[in-house]
Amino acid sequence: MGTVSETGFGWLTPVLSYLMACVGGALGLRATVRAVHANSSRSRRNWLVSAAVAIGTGIWTMHFVAMLGFTVAGTEIRYDVLLTLASLLVAIVVVGLGVLLVTRGQGRPLSLAAGGLATGVGVAAMHYLGMGAVHMDGSVSYAPWEVGGSVAIATVAATAALWASLTVRNPLTSLAASLVMGIAVSAMHYTGMAAVQVHVVPGAPPPSGATAMDFIFPLTVGLGSYLFLTAAYVGLSDTGRRPVRPEAAEPAPVPVRAAADGSGRR
After folding, report:
1. At residue 254, what are phi and psi to the nearest 5 degrees?
2. Which of 43, 57, 100, 242 shows a CA-CA span of 20 to 30 A to 9?
3. 169 neighbors 123 (Cβ within 8 angstroms)
């Protein structure tokens, strides 16, 4: 059995991957709040798409940056490009479903539980599909208890983050919600990686696929551009809160008409 390590670059990859998850979570959760208070169906749809892409991209980036530190003694590690990109798409789609459930239910307990479950499962689906993209000289198996624990951690923490983002308006507490989301993604990832068992096959041909470093340049340029544009979109747009309903506004005073005198003049 090959010796598995998650810290090939020391603490750099765990810390950097956690920050990526927090940034994606912060943008996505703020977009979720805007979707809840959107004035029109079109605006709500745009905010939902923004939230799904931000959170999904943050999750995927966290996973990939963390995988830079993944090493197995006795084998090289390569990645299937199509499966790696498919894991990004899965993260965006499934997280989008979770955000949609929460916003449709206006944060009510049942919708929040369904949204948190969908988001947690989305995180797990992205992770294990991404692990399926790993090629090496050997076979990979998983310890079932750690796998179940990773999904449970992701679901509980994602639900807590969604709840905080919808119920608390204080900027510092909103930041705390994104930190919780980062914990959800990171804890799920490293718990899932603790379940990995690699059986190396000595003398096997070198694995095919791209190296992790082949992804670094497009990841840096693409992610940097996306985060800048999304942050500008969230920051420069209005709050998206619904206007006060007419019945809730203070009624205008009714003018008093002067009584007519005997000559017919008012």
Report:
1. -85, 125
2. 57
3. no
DSSP secondary structure letter of residue 5: E
**d(C-alpha 159, C-alpha 60), whole Å:** 18
Would you call 186 exposed, middle or buried from its count of C-beta atoms within 10 A (0-12, 13-18, 19+)?
Answer: buried
Q: Is the dihedral of CA 8, 196, 22, 83 positive or negative?
A: positive
Tell which phi-psi region holds residue 138, choosing left (phi > 0), alpha (psi between -120 and 50) or beta: left
pTM exceeding 0.90: no
At 142-182, the pLDDT tens digits run 888 888 888 898 888 778 777 876 776 666 777 787 888 78
CA atoms of 4 and 68, how far apart (whole Å)? 13
- Please choose, from the candidates 236, 237, 173, 174, the residue with its C-alpha nearest in 3D space to the C-alpha of residue 44: 237
Residue carrying the six token digits 């830079």: 68
Contact (CB, 8 A) for 66 and 17: yes
Strand partners for 79: 134, 210
Mention every residue, 6+ apart, whose C-beta is less than 8 A from residue 247.
none
